[in-house]
Amino acid sequence: MKFIIDDADIAKIKDIYNTFAVDGVTTNPSILAKSGRQPYEVLTEIREFIGPDAELHVQVIAPDAEGMVRDGHRIVEVLGKNTYVKVPTTKEGLRAMKLLHAEGIRVTATAIYTRMQAFLAAKAGADYAAPYVNRIDNLGGDGVKTAQDIHDIFRKNGLDCQVLAASFKNSQQVQELCEYGIGAATISPDVIEALIKNDSVAMAVEAFVKDFEGLCGKGVTMETSK
Ligand code: G3P
To answer: In this structure, is the dihedral angle defined by the CA atoms of residues 78, 84, 90 and 92, taken in order, positive or negative?
Structure first.
């Protein structure tokens, strides 16, 4: 499962990148709005930091297919070929996906709440389909199960499309999809931090250090001990 950051805050992206093995960054219009900066200014900075080979996902804004395609052209022109054009999975979006795919532009079908949306996006040539796990849960559905079912639909129908699960609110959702072996998960920095936060682990490590310092003295490490 690829591990992707869902944020546009460059300080947070740098912090997560320096610790975790990360495959790229996803953004959406709301995430860009939170940065308070002009879109291409912040996106260019992200691209420069993650390098030309990492995945960057950027969403179109235009309401019609032709406009979405034009948005996609500009996105790839400015941010490079490893940039995935995120297209909402609406009727217009499906048409834009077909057109972008025909040009060899990488597409992430987004705003997916149903299995059928994902199936149609994959048929239209999307490389990734992004089900919104937590938002589906909030509607009374089962976000994890939806993402798993979409993964199965792709495999059973021989569709060359991966699940890029999005909208996580807790570690359990991420873990279940990791165990299932979906293609990718895009996760906000706070949920990423929570994946490794565990008081029992912290206490165990603290006890090891305390015992060692009892033997060798405070502040002594394996570098400085006799
Ligand atoms: O791009 C979709 C994803 O980022 C949505 O996440 O947390 O706003 O539900 P969230």
So the answer is: positive
